[in-house]
Write a structure and sequence with these properties.
Strand order of the largest sheet: 24-25-26-27-28-29-30-33
CATH architecture of the domain at 329-519 and 554-579: Alpha-Beta Barrel
Strand content: 35-45%
Distance between the termini: 18 Å
Bound molecules: beta-D-galactopyranose
Oligomer: single chain
Number of strands: 49
Shape: globular
Helix content: 10-25%
CATH topology of the domain at 329-519 and 554-579: TIM Barrel
CATH superfamily of the domain at 329-519 and 554-579: Glycosidases
């Protein structure tokens, strides 16, 4: 168990200054938060006796939480075989789908146990367990007694365990989790896959998610802060109470203070107003944060401390004008993401999330939809810090099921509780711009569906009147005709660019959001010929072509969406399906095991950019040039055959040369097709080995940049590049190391499938590996994997000890790659 400085409740050990005496003894901390990460015992299977304190768990596996019990495999198409007709995919008959949820063994029951020391606990104290998420149907036991349950695996929830605890260190915590078959449309993960916290406070205290901070007025001179803070007291508690709050900027400078007494009639809530002069605004480009630090006093005695991090930003959604942030019109350049982290499964890891966001930032992405469920709190914190606007989503179904054992079974009893927790946890975050109450819920077209939408939206408004509510709708006609779409603050449509105008004419809001767009499919580094647009196209290799022209029968190429985003002022942006590939939903190969992960990602399951990354980057990243050529140029046997060359660039025109011969100059032009407007394409190039080179010209017609791709020779060596080379020695920091199989000249061997082996020595360990091949059944946690199209990503984890870390990647017949990383001690506070 480790003491942590929690995110939303940062507690500074108060020191009592004894002034002239010179002594400075530390007073007891009024609030302590512990991360329950180590010393957990785990066993798959149902062991009801495990709830009892005396149960012997010595033979159980020792695990560290966050933990995903299913990611270690093995893959098997029978793990969650679903015979279904996927209605939202326009399927006409049920078929057998083996990889729909990733083919991993997440179904069944599992138990986690650990001793629970509660330091400082005793009379006048309270203890709370806070789960950031537990998959799923959590039942929590303390000392053999059930303290509560929470079915929905994605939500955060807490239980007050004060009355269940005994004094001393001899308490036992046990958690039973159970996942049903046919409960999901993607890989949900399994177990205590997010953090578990123990919070110990005085019994006069601020409860979990006890503050609500809004900024009702922001202008150049000042920003007004409205802070509501709840307080819980035992019956007949000491009065009077007082809350002292100061606002600090990121450097810790105090900018405003206030002190508020609480009258008995104040309903146990403090209302405070503070003014910050010349506030700096939060935006994706300037993620400036402030913190309100509150101290709760009973008389002169400090009872609790609580911190609320926030930002100053204002936004509007206006008919005819669309979306604006801090007074500036903009369109969402967003992606939808599922919650898994590829080879790490769903076990949350801050370094892995940060790496994803760094990659998305480079693409110019400024928004994320947490499809189709509540995110990990770490993601929301990172979005505040790094500058991403969030659409936080709650549900994939309401009353009408999409899968046999999905959320519909809990909806009536739990929907309100789930929404309340979602909003209370995340409503102080500047990154959160809107809430989504559902995705493609079949209730869109059910009688009374609009009433459900209204009820859920009202709940969200009640808990947070400052943000609008949306739903990702797919049944556009039904949703418009039965007044479902018109009820919502924001009408969000999935895959309907061709109908945005029609919808906008019929709806009252005056703007439309592309809640889900594109769903183009591709496999990194795979190119199929002839190069033609196609729907639901399948190949014997169970891959999709990276010319970015293949879509599903309901979806579009990126360019088709771009046209509408650019031409229709009332369209306020898009959320592309998806940023990263995810486990499960291997469309168009839903029926074709071993395909078991998606092809939709702009980046693959290993986090390696596919070509599409550069198409979005060329449009979204306005700060840096993009010039990217495809396909690779190593095609033995294709000599003389038509091998189109595409260029994704933000330059308006470019000239292509094949072995020095000009193939002509192309200029982006809106006339012929959506593709000609956003890509430069040379469709008639005949393959000959050598070099393709593109020379780009800027708007003034000046030569601006060049890029080339060469035919590769035989695989010769492995090169390694890490996303970060200096890590933290905290046992969970990660380096993502890209391994490339290259020829002697340093060219990527673009079809290499060499089997690579990984060895980590020093202050680190091998954690996982992924190659982005949706058909690969190789296990992520074993230190060996085949390269896919010449590349893969190995993940190295630090230990708790500082020192040098060495990764060696070897393969028969290739010169090994060696990489050195540094793992540094955690900075003392
Ligand atoms: C949508 C759905 C997503 C995903 C996507 C694939 O209909 O909302 O969850 O299934 O299709 O294209």
């Amino acid at each position: 168990m480790k003491y942590t400085f929690p995110r939303r409740a940062l507690h500074i050990a108060p020191f009592l200054f004894l002034g002239l005496l010179g002594a400075m003894p530390a007073a007891a901390q009024v609030r302590q938060e512990y991360l329950l990460d180590t010393n957990w015992k785990f066993k798959k299977g149902d062991t009801p006796e495990a709830a009892t304190p005396g149960f012997k768990d010595a033979s159980w596996q020792t695990v560290r939480v966050p933990h995903d019990w299913a990611i270690y495999g093995p893959f098997d198409g029978r793990n969650d075989l679903q015979e279904v007709k996927i209605e939202q995919n326009n399927e006409k008959a049920a078929t057998l789908k083996a990889g729909r949820t990733g083919g991993l063994p997440f179904i069944g029951t599992g138990w986690y146990r650990r001793k629970l020391a509660v330091p400082g606990f005793g009379a006048g104290k309270r203890a709370v367990l806070l789960f950031d998420g537990a998959m799923s149907n959590a039942r929590v036991f303390v000392n053999g007694k059930e303290v509560g349950n929470w079915p929905y695996g994605y939500n955060s929830f807490s239980f007050d365990i004060t009355s269940f605890l005994q004094p001393g260190d001899n308490n036992t915590l046990a958690v039973r989790l159970q996942n049903q078959a046919e409960a999901s449309r993607w890989y949900p993960g399994a177990g205590l896959y997010r953090n578990v916290h123990l919070i110990v406070t005085d019994d006069v205290h601020i409860p979990v998610w006890g503050s609500y901070l809004t900024t009702p007025e922001i202008n150049a001179e000042f920003g007004k802060v409205n802070l509501r803070t709840k307080v819980q007291t035992p019956a007949g508690a000491t009065q009077p109470l007082r809350l002292q709050t100061e606002i600090r900027d990121a450097a810790g400078q105090v900018l405003a203070t206030t002190s508020t007494p609480l009258a008995a009639t104040d309903n146990r809530e403090f209302q405070q107003e503070l003014i910050v002069k010349t506030p700096r605004l939060w935006s994706p480009e300037t993620p400036v944060l402030y913190t309100a630090h509150s101290k709760l006093y009973a008389g002169e005695q400090l009872k609790d401390e609580y911190s609320t991090r926030f930002g100053f930003r204002s936004f509007k959604f206006e008919a005819g004008k669309g979306f604006s942030l801090n007074g500036q019109a903009r369109k969402f350049k967003g992606v939808c993401n599922h919650h898994d982290l590829g080879p790490l499964g769903t076990a949350i890891n801050t370094a892995a999330l940060r790496r994803q966001l760094v990659l998305l930032k480079d693409m110019g992405c400024d928004a994320i939809r947490t499809s189709h469920n509540m995110p990990a709190p770490e993601l929301v914190d990172l979005c505040d810090e790094m500058g991403f606007m969030l659409m936080v989503e709650s549900f994939d179904e309401w009353k009408t099921p999409k899968v046999k054992n999905g959320y519909s079974q809990y909806f009536d009893q739990w929907a309100e509780k789930d929404l309340v927790n979602m909003v209370h946890r995340d409503r102080n975050h500047p990154s959160v711009i809107m809430w989504s109450i559902g995705n493609e819920v079949p209730d869109q077209s059910a009688p009374g569906g609009n009433k459900i939408a209204k009820r859920l939206q009202d709940i969200v408004h009640r808990e947070d009147p400052t943000r609008p509510v949306t739903v990702g709708m797919d049944r556009i006609d039904a949703a418009i005709n039965n007044n479902f779409a018109s009820v919502l603050d924001i009408a969000g449509f999935n895959y309907k660019p061709a109908r945005y105008e029609q919808a906008n004419d019929k709806l009252p809001q005056g703007f439309i959001l592309g809640t889900e767009t594109a769903s183009t499919v591709s496999s990194r580094g795979i190119y199929e010929f002839p190069v033609v647009g196609a729907k639901q196209k399948k190949y014997p290799n169970q891959q999709s072509s990276s010319y970015d022209l293949e879509v599903c029968n309901w979806s579009q190429t990126p360019d088709e969406e771009f046209v509408k985003q650019d031409d229709l002022p009332f369209v306020i942006g898009e959320f592309v399906w998806t940023g990263f590939d995810y486990l499960g939903e291997p469309t168009p190969y839903d029926e074709n095991w071993p395909s078991h992960s998606s092809y939709f990602g702009i980046l693959d399951l290993a986090g390696l950019p596919k070509d599409r990354f550069y198409l979005y980057r060329s449009r979204w990243n306005t700060a840096a040039p993009t010039l990217h050529l495809l396909p690779h140029w190593t095609w033995p046997g294709r000599e003389g055959q038509t091998t189109p060359v595409f260029c994704y660039t933000n330059y308006p025109s470019a000239e292509l040369f094949v072995n020095g011969k000009s193939m002509g100059r192309q200029t982006k032009s809106p006339s012929a097709s959506p593709q000609t407007r956003y890509r430069l394409m040379w469709n008639d190039v005949k393959y000959e080995p050598g070099t393709i080179k593109v020379v780009a010209y800027d708007a003034q017609g000046k030569e601006a940049a060049t890029e080339e791709v060469r035919t590769a020779g035989k695989p010769d060596h492995i090169t390694l590049t890490a996303d970060r080379t200096t890590l933290t020695a905290n046992g969970q920091d990660l380096a993502f190391v890209t391994a490339r199989v290259e020829d002697a000249q340093g060219n990527l061997c673009p079809t290499a499938a060499n089997k690579l082996q990984f060895a980590v020595s020093g202050a680190g360990r091998f954690r996982a590996v992924a190659n982005g091949d949706a058909t690969s059944l190789e296990l992520f946690h074993e230190p060996k994997m085949k390269a896919f199209q010449g590349m893969l990503v190995a993940v190295v984890e630090t230990t708790d000890k500082a020192g040098d870390v060495q990764l060696k990647v070897s393969s028969k017949g290739l010169k090994s790659g060696v990489l050195r990383l540094k793992s540094q001690g955690v900075a003392s506070r």
